[in-house]
Write a structure and sequence with these properties.
Layout: H1 2-6, E1 11-15, E2 19-24, H2 59-62, H3 70-87, E3 121-125, E4 130-134, H4 147-156, H5 158-166, H6 170-175, H7 177-190
Antiparallel strand pairs: 1-2, 2-3, 3-4
Length: 202
Amino acid sequence: VIGAAKGKIVINAALGFDTYLVMRHGARASAVPCNGARLGCYYCNDIVAPSDSLTDRTLDQMCTVTRPGLAPIAASTAVELLASLLQHPEGLHAPAPQANQNSASHSEEDGGSVLGVVPHQLRGFLAQFRNVPIVGAAYDRCTGCSEIVLREYEKAGFEMMLKAFNDTKYLPKLTGLDALYNEGEEALEKIDWDEEDGGEDF
C-alpha cells in the first residue's frame, strides 16, 4: 500500500517447498501511462484480504519448509530483477515482456534494459530447474494496490492501516470484495444441482 501510494519500487519473493515466486509490483492506476498495461501486485491474484497467519496456527502452518537452495535462488533472482528494473529507462513503469516474446532477445529496442528483459513475475520450479516469466494484470478490487485503498491511505494515513490490521472485514468492505463474495454465494444457491441417488460411480 505504502509503496504504491508513494510510487516506490516493491519487489517480493515468496517460497514454497520447491517453487518460488519473485515479482515486481506495478505502479498505481493513476500513474500508469495511457497506452500502458497496469501490472498487478502480490495481492491482485487473491480475492481474500490479508489476515493473521500466526495466531492459533501450528508450526507447519506458520512457516514454509523449503529445499536448502531455494531461498538463495529466489533472493538472488529478486536482486537481479531490481538491477534490471533500475537500469530500464522507464524504471517503475517498465513494460513486462509478453509471454510469446523471444526470450533470447533482450535489447533495449525490444523493451528491455541494458541488463536484459524486466519480467513482471518469475515463477521458479526447482524440481524441473525451470523459470517461467508471467505477466499478471492489476485487479481493481485489490486489497493492496487498488485506487480506493490508496486514496483511503492518503486521506487517513496510519489510522487506515490500524483499521486494516485490527479488523479483517475492513479491507473487503472498502474494496467491495464482500459484495463479490455475497454475489458468488447467491449464484451458488441458485444453481440447480442434479443429484441422482444410487447412481454408478464414474
